Predict the structure.
Amino acid sequence: MSNFPIDVFHEQNTIPRLPTFGVRLGDNRYNCNKIATASNLFGAMFTFLLHLHDYDFILRNPDDRLLIKKIDAGNHDWINFQITDAAKIDLFKRGAQAAERFLLKFYWLEYKKVREQLNPK
């Protein structure tokens, strides 16, 4: 169970032919959920379980951090199924700006060097 299955594209002991980029919407890892009701508790437990595998993978594979960009979602909730058009546009702009910043700093040859160091032949 994963909301961010970047591990599906990760191959140990190889240098990828092409990069696989990951995009994380929001980064509320350090924000506590407010729990006032049983449904809040269930929601917090579900969110924890949904992200646990992802965080574990990223911690065990620090090289993949170079391929992942987090997008500040502002006050938008990642599971809002009734998002307004204005909020959609705001999230789109945030994503485009984050992608631009990420791609301007990403260097494929440097990433390959990191992978070569982690996977000596």
Q: What stands out?
A: Strands lie at 22-25, 68-71. Residues 38-60 form the longest helix (23 residues). The longest strand covers residues 22-25. The mean pLDDT is 82.
